[in-house]
Amino acid sequence: MEQQEENSSRLVLVLYPFQGHINPMLQLATILHGKGYSITIVHPEFNSPNPSNQPQFTFISIPDKLLESKVSLLPEDFMSLVLALNKNCAAPFKKCLKQMLDEKHPHECIAGIIYDALMYFAQTVADDLGFPGISMRPTAAAMLLFAVIPHPDHESVFENQIPELQPLQLKKMVTSMSQNPTDAMSEVRAAALNATKRSSAMIENTMEFLEHAALSKIKEYSPAPVFTIGPFHKLAPSISSSLLKEDAHCISWLDKQTPKSVIYVSFGSMASLSEQNIVEIAWGLANSEQPFLWVIRPGLIPGSEGTELLPKGFQEKVGERGCIVKWTPQKEVLAHVAVGGFWTHCGWNSTLESVSEGVPMLCRPYFGDQVLNMRYICYVWKIGLELENELERGKIEGAIKKLMLDAEGEEIRNKAMELKEKTEDCLKEEGSSCRSLNELTKLV
Ligand code: UDP
Is 75 in the same domain as 195? Predict the structure, then answer.
């Protein structure tokens, strides 16, 4: 608090309103608040975070007109949603900043605007009003390679110049991204790229040791400095920013399980599964004989609660060995001594949360950057197994056993523990993330 009064700088953070983006942005806000900055969080009305969870911040909601724009919220229409938010929120955001300038305390200054890279309108507003704009990306830094390296160089750079990243198949990703892009996709890409070029800095939720090769290449091309201060959740451990209610009962269930015996199964906040998938997963888990904690969130199976689709005889077979909940306090779950494996959709937050607790992963990506994250996990860091092709109960059972029990999976389990130790090193005072955070605060 004392520090805050001395340093009367305010940072304005602009949220992209989905769980996988809200978490890292609020964690970053907590980290910067700890460094003495006052924090204002500007967010669209849709999926508003609960301000009472973070009373130390000022929250400002701006109209997003999403209802009027009749935008679909399905993952496949995500580019149209990004476009609508950028179009609808720019003017209200500018108005809100002007109002803040009119009302501000005489000794306070707005030191900068930090925005989720998908809310690129914030860079334009920052430029108009003369504030530094800083983008934050809640994805692997490798995703930034597509943005900072000029398009004509993609092929040669991705094919020859970064041998460590060959397993990511970046060239294949570029080819598939450039096949039949929709108008919305091309517009978002061009606008986000343009904003990145004008930003004063970029903040990445990653660690130097995890993405060294990608980061060196990015720094070679990027006009703005890049700060790697991840994993944010370890530097801001105490905050809760879940949009769904977390089920605390799963922690007392975990307390009763033996160390490293539980496979935790969660596909994040956006991915969806078919009815058939649920049946195969249920039998795969049941037949693996391992205890499991499975998140079936509302909407995981479109149009259903999910649990009513569990097959007959499943509950009788698993009894107390299985715990099914709608939403967990995931960071706490992954840090629990009973958890020995994580079947994940490979969202970047889930990936970092698992890496930092040394939990090996069973990987089943669905869309977007999840495929790249899976390739990092399984083929670059070698701390997971890919679950490919059709979801089928026998394959699921085999993969769980291999990951958690069999001698074949031992190397993966050991490697995962090594990365946990390296993560701890990064977070020490002289570690790369702490040093990068100090450099960022100097710049701001
Ligand atoms: N999460 C959670 N409880 C759950 C499932 C997920 O708290 O039951 C959190 C998880 O810790 C992570 C975020 O939701 O921080 C999901 O982000 P991620 O990038 O992994 O995936 P997305 O939801 O964006 O696909």
Answer: yes
